Amino acid sequence: MVDVLSQNEIDALLAALSSGEMDAEELKKEEAQKKVRAYDFKRAVRFSKDHIRSLTRIHENFARFLTTYFSAQLRTFVQISVVQVEQLPYDEFIRSIPKMTILNIFEAEPLEGRMVLEVHPNVAFAMLDRLLGGAGSAPTKIGSLTEIETIIMEKIFSRALESLQEAWRTIVEVEPRLEALETNPQFMQIVSPNETIALISLSTKIGDTTGMINLCIPHVVIEPIMSKLSVHHWFVSQKKTRAPDEVLQLEQRVSKAKLPIVAELGSSRISVQEFLNLAVGDVIALNRSTDEGLEIKVGDKLKYIGSPGTVRDRMAVQIHEIVSEGVEEFNDE
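Predicted structure:
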């Protein structure tokens, strides 16, 4: 991989060459020599920069969906944003989180394997306090969850996983399902300690309480769809078509829409003075004879030509002609 210099580094290099502090010939000799880069097999690089960028875009949408969901559920100010997306060994992730935290272990079919949504206790208990009628402040001392608290948290985070489904929809259709809720990281072993994971860190603010939400995605889980996490898939992918059930629902909704239909007998122009002098029995001459068909408009568009009549003692209009698409009405000025 080629290292890319920043503009400041380029300026400093040019200044050093101009002042004589560095010799261009020596730089060429160093470049010609074989370079060796240390590689740590415990920190295997499984995600390319392209993959990291794609994961960042996906979970920026996830953060927006979570913000909307939690704001509606908690009825208070919630702000969630992506802070960092990185890859590291699973064991390092386990050692970096608190000994007492909220671990939502879930699966997302058709992907095989388990993932984890880790919520910092400050954030989780602030949500719990808000749901139970409090102000949404974090507790000074965090203890184990009661049975009722566990059920409440399972429900709120189970529904929060639906936001993950929406965020991943552009890549693959997944169905996240909460498997278990743990509080001790030592009891959670979803992959081997040396397995590389993608860690998405989300900064979370609920009222005055701040904390982190971490999404742990093992490489082995999303390995089958890694090819879809590329720029080629994002920008050159084929245009998606609507599912048959979506088309049917759209047709049903459109068919129920109401449109105004107006049959115009004709029109006329009179002065304001003539209008003020109108009395019972006066006749207003229209610009259309009785032999001409009526213009029938759907909305403000001319669609049909017909004639007036009655059906079962009610006024009606019989259609004689369908106006071709694109024909517009021109009124005489």
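Summary: The chain has ten helices and ten strands.
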